[in-house]
Amino acid sequence: MPVILVTDVLVWLLVAAAAGYAYYCRRHDHLAAPWRRVFASRAAMVSLVVLCAYLAAGLADSLHFRARLESGGPGAPAAYSNEVMSLLDVAVGDLRTRSEKTYSAPFATRLYAKELIELPGGKSVRDYPRLRFGGAHLKTEADRGADVAAKALAALAAAVAVWGALGWALRGFARSRPGVPWRAAWLALGALLALAAPAFALSGGYHVLGTDKVGQDVFYLSLKSIRTSLVIGTLTTLVMLPLGAAVGIMAGYFKGWVDDVIQYAYTTLNSIPAVLLIAASVLMMQVYIDTHPELFPTTAQRADLRLLFLCVILGLTSWTGLARLLRGESLKLRELEYIQAAHAFGVSHARIIGRHILPNVMHIIIISLVMDFSGLVLAEAVLSYVGVGVDPSTTSFGTMINNARLEMAREPMVWWALAAAFWFMFVLVLVANLFADAVRDGFDPRVRVGGGGA
Amino acid sequence: MLSYILRRILYAIPILVGVNLITFALFFVVNTPDDMARMQLGAKRVTPEAIAKWKAERGYDRPLVWNAAAAGTGRLTQTIFFEKSARLFVFDFGAAEDRRDIATEIRARMGPSLALAIPVFLVGLAVNITFALGMAFFRASALDFAGVVLCVAMMSISTLFYIIGGQYLVSKLWHLVPISGYDAGLDAAKFLVLPAAIGVLSGIGSGSRWYRTLFLEEMGKDYVRTARAKGLAETAVLFRHVLKNAMIPILTGAVVVIPLLFMGSLLSESFFGIPGLGSYTIEAIQGQDFAVVRAMVFIGSVLYIAGLLLTDLSYTLVDPRVRLE
Amino acid sequence: MSPHDGISLGVSGLTTWLETAEGPLHAVDGVDLEVRPGECFALVGESGCGKSMTALSVLRLLPEAGHISAGAVHLGGEDLLALPEAAMRAVRGRRIAMIFQEPSTSLNPVLTVGRQIVEVIERHTDVSGDAARAKVLELLAAVGIADGERRFGEYPFQLSGGLKQRVMIAAALAADPDVLVADEPTTALDVTIQAQILDLLKKLQSERGMAVLLISHDLAVVAQMAQRVAVMYAGQIVEVATREAFFRAPQHPYSQMLFAALPAAANRGAPLAVIPGQVPALTQRFRSCRFADRCGLVFERCRTEPPALVPAGLGHAARCHLREAGQAGPRSAGPGAAAVHAAGEPGPLLLEVSGLKVHFPIRRGLLRRVAGHVKAVDGVSFGIREGRTLALVGESGCGKTTAGKALLQLIRPTAGTVRFGGRELTALSRSELRPVRAAMQIVFQDPYASLNPRMRVADILAEGIQALGAAATAAELDRRIDAMLEQVGLPRESRKRYPHEFSGGQRQRIAIARALAVEPRLIVCDEPTSALDVSVQAQILNLLKDLQDRLGLAYLFITHNIAVVGHLAHEVAVMHQGRIVEHGPVGDVLSRPQHAYTRELLASVPEIDAVPER
């Protein structure tokens, strides 16, 4: 039985919108041209490959359902599990349920903390107990090295085979589209597969990135955090974009009192330090959620709505930057001669904005959309640390860091959860930044050289 | 000039009123004081009496904006709006949940905040400009490319990791400075070195990349070509001509945050246990101390507006086109 | 004797490439030239011919995408291209200096005038401190800046365009260079200022015996300034000659056509010569004459063999196979004043503007009270009759463009009346104006800013028709778009294309077609040709003239170009500081100006046919 979360709907709407935009661009050469410049960049293609991997995890994690329970005979009404699962949970197998008692290091076979263990003879000793799942299939713990190596090599071989086959199969496609650095993309894909395949293969028998305080697999948590980051990075712009665009263009185009009012509004909003405004809004939202429990039937839904509200709040507090940019650009555009010519025809304001201003500020909107993404992913971590981020039950990089941070003081230190969050987040933000740079270079008319001439 | 400054100050008033209305709406209209009381008291202890007591202790038992029961001006003044929001204008912030006076607390915590924020600001500015100038000087070379890549990588790391990593390496592994804490006077230095260094480091990526863009933009301008046509060396072109022009956006961009330095740094202070306004804010948010959050929002806005004013003033100092107009 | 005696600057085989997305562009392709001491050598050509790139190559100041791939630049027996960069810096500003087109952006906005000149002196001489200051004051006086003491401490923004160019010249001369490269030094200036700067350059050159390499697109400026002239086309010099020989009898077909394309009162009424086609792409390698596709005299050999420079008289050469057969005759001075047709019967009054004022408030003080007004247009009255052209002439900032926009109600006038076809426009609301809009349209100056880059040509042309509800059906709309393209001489396939696929001249045709699409009776032409090259300008002027004859359009022609006025207008109104100072039939105003300003303006216009004999 599918479970439809609000953010899932919005995420998929966004995917549909992006697909529609891509289709529209393909049919309009002047819209496709900047994208061609983007895709001609090696950094953009490499980061796009990595981004797509993240996106795949995030989207798989955005299809939720409740599993049918194997109960009753045929004809009996179908019963569904209470647990909301996503496609990703299915894809990673039983990683979700394979919880240990508490911390365990990556590839460990024993727990990180000593416990009283009942020996068969009735006696008990204090020792590190064997893990319930990590390396449980091993006959003796000494086999671990060989087992890991064998599994990793097998996975690697499979990955290389898939990689080679893919390159072979797609080489005609690549050749028919010159000007795109396919080789770089293919190499990036190779590196990605070489990392991912052994990780997934080994995650069946071990906790490749260890487990956290309550024994959850860190690799699984990292994968689950991706969706939260993507949702925050994209849905926020969904709120911010129409608001910032409409308000900014109106201020610049109409000038006069409209501009005065809008400028007043955004100076006022801007003058409140962003973290405090977000914190105040989130606190108030928390009060509201806590005092209206009847509105949120399940925890999943509550956490989801809280995530959505966080996006809305981030959006409402961050539209001012885009609005200011677009105001400046519209102020310039409104004096341009083709807009004066439209006035000379008596074209209506709405039409002038729709046909002349909006298409000519679109590049700014796209640039700021991709530029904001990485900032939002980073902001989520900080806000979750401050305590005004996502719901504690929602897995995110912020909550992962927050939980692991306290174990810094432990001797020896529990480093794996932090390291996992760091690398997953760093790679995501890095490729987002690199891609954003390429988009900016492709779209910003100022960077372009040559062209034109009578 | 004077009338210009006066006009900017007058313009600040409606903005502060706006800020005040926003905070009032957020804290008292979205959720009623009753809701807040229920939340704060927790599910077990919620009784009408407990709520009434909670509200009375904090002065939230009055009507929001219009007290029909009072007489004369009391109808306006004996309200939550007047007592909790309007009184912020005279810097009367009331008391925190722990009954301590917020204004006193803020005064005491300003020092440590500034002790950390000012070095980070000054050193950061100097480091970023130097780094950016270096990249601009070697523009379009491998060195420039490496610099940009490094910047992008550095800005892709969350501040949290800079702090955690710094604490782990410098304090835990190398035992160079205490992991956290604070002391009065010069003894504070040993507690401040690490957070200050981390503050500078975490800002290098985005800061110097932004300045590099500014420098390169200036270097494409006609007057740079003129300077080269005069036979000036590349360093003279860079330092005498480009830097002077690029300093206008850099300085004015930096000036706006100077007053906000008072607010301190949220993350550093809280990680390093520095008793400044940043950690005060975080504690208030985590402890859901609405009175403190409200006070900090208001102070933040006042400082931001002061920053805008300073920016306008700094323009008149560094840009002759504005100064002599 | 060394081969370089008697030559200040010698350029040989200079080849400069620009890296572009389409591959290397041969911006300068084997240029040879010699500038002698005390001589002004002019390099003239249309935009994109490589003249500025030549100048920048000489100083090795190319943009980052450009590099010199071959050739030599000799200055006093030394090859500048062989010098290391550090040694080259000692040459720049000291032995060879340069001034640029845009004085407003070429000076550093945050350094004082004095500082920017002093740094040249300090860089290249041992003079510094007070002595340098004294030297600067001397230089400022030499370039005709009266109160040098005060100007020394001022910033560029406090100076007018003309003064800024004088400062640029002073800085260039500060270290007494042997050669001055002047890249379009007066193009950004008004004609009266241009006359002053040209006089100044001439004076300084003769006083100092300096060699000047003048880069210009303006044949009239060249006629005033140069002793020798070289014409550039598509990266090559196609003709080189003494001034007298060149202006008497240009030998290259391209030069000849440039002259024929110049509008003037003398060739009024007759269509101007146009050069068909466009400059070929410089990314290709040529195996033919670069001008072959556009030349009226082309023959077989032109297509198979690139011509070399062929001598055509003393010190005169042209890159044309025809010159092997002998010199061309002197150019004709045009059909002459006889061709001016007598003004036909004046039609009824179409537009009547009276007492038009546009004032922009200046706000000052605490409450931003209106402290005064910029009187952009201050009581302007004129009328235009059906089918006639009124030229509104003036220098930048005189209010002519504002007046044009105000009568179209694009800027609402502060006072005065605008009656169009008997209807008062100033009181009408935006929606009430709509029906009137079809009858009066506008064509702008900049063909790059006047078309929305995101719209297809068909949509651009349809916009007005749709907004004014002038076409009932889609088929009707289609038919009209095709008709408009045909009117302005563009192929029908243009409709599916975007503006960036067209050249400047073609874009201006699209802009004219857009205005024509709603069947106007009056078109305000706001400097429609001043952003265009001479040969393209000729096409547009011919088109406007032709449309007037066929459709009976009236034009308000806003321009600063007196030659265009003489060629095209029936009446002239001269604007100065927001007012019309003189108004009358074109012949009267241009030949017998009454107002002092008009006289000054006309006297400042450089003229080709007034080449001073010596």
Provide keyphrases for this structure.
heterotrimer; B: 325 residues; mainly alpha; MetI-like fold; 2 domains; C: 614 residues; alpha/beta; Rossmann fold; eight-stranded mixed beta sheet
So, the CATH homologous superfamily of the largest domain in chain B? MetI-like
Amino-to-carboxy terminus distance of chain A: 64 Å
SS element count, helices of chain A: 14
Number of helices of chain B: 15
Mean pLDDT of chain B: 87
Q: Main interface pair?
A: A-B, 45 and 46 residues
Structural class of chain A: mainly alpha
Compact overview of the structure:
The complex is a heterotrimer of chains A (454), B (325) and C (614). Chain A is mainly alpha-helical and 454 residues long. Chain A has 14 helices and five strands.
Structural summary, described in words:
- The complex is a heterotrimer of chains A (454), B (325) and C (614).
- By secondary structure, chain A is mainly alpha-helical.
- Chain A is 66% helix and 5% strand.
- Chain A is built from 14 helices and 5 strands.
- By secondary structure, chain B is mainly α.
- The mean pLDDT of chain B is 87.
- The termini of chain B are close together.
- In chain B, 39% of the residues are buried.
- Chain C has 21 helices and 22 strands.
- Chain C starts with 8 loop residues before the first strand and ends in a 10-residue tail after the last helix.
- Among the domains of chain C are: 9-109 and 177-226, Rossmann fold; 253-325, no CATH class; 349-439 and 520-603, Rossmann fold, CATH 3.40.50.300.
- Chain C has 614 residues and is α/β, with parallel strands linked by helices.
- Chain C is globular and about 75 Å long.
- The interface between A and B is large, with 45 and 46 residues.
List strands and helices in order, with pairings.
The complex is a heterotrimer of chains A (454), B (325) and C (614).
Chain A: E1 2-3, H1 6-27, H2 29-39, H3 42-60, E2 64-68, E3 80-86, H4 87-91, E4 115-118, E5 124-127, H5 144-175, H6 182-203, H7 218-254, H8 256-271, H9 274-291, H10 299-334, H11 337-344, H12 349-386, H13 397-405, H14 416-443
Helix pairs in contact in A: 1-2, 1-7, 2-14, 3-6, 3-7, 3-14, 5-6, 7-8, 7-10, 7-12, 7-14, 8-10, 9-10, 10-12, 12-13, 12-14, 13-14
Chain B: H1 2-29, H2 33-41, H3 48-58, H4 74-77, H5 80-85, H6 102-137, H7 142-155, H8 159-173, H9 189-219, H10 222-229, H11 234-255, H12 266-272, H13 277-286, H14 290-318, H15 320-323
Chain C: E1 9-20, E2 23-35, E3 40-44, H1 51-59, E4 66-75, E5 78-79, H2 85-91, E6 96-99, H3 103-106, H4 113-124, H5 129-142, H6 148-152, H7 161-173, E7 179-183, H8 191-208, E8 211-216, H9 219-225, E9 228-233, E10 236-242, H10 243-248, H11 253-261, H12 300-304, E11 310-311, E12 317-318, E13 349-364, E14 369-385, E15 389-393, H13 400-407, E16 415-420, E17 423-424, H14 430-437, E18 440-443, H15 457-467, H16 474-487, H17 504-516, E19 522-526, H18 534-551, E20 554-559, H19 562-568, E21 571-576, E22 579-585, H20 586-591, H21 596-604
Parallel strand pairs in C: 3-8, 3-9, 6-7, 7-8, 15-20, 15-21, 18-19, 19-20
Antiparallel strand pairs in C: 1-2, 1-4, 4-5, 9-10, 10-12, 11-12, 13-14, 13-16, 16-17, 21-22
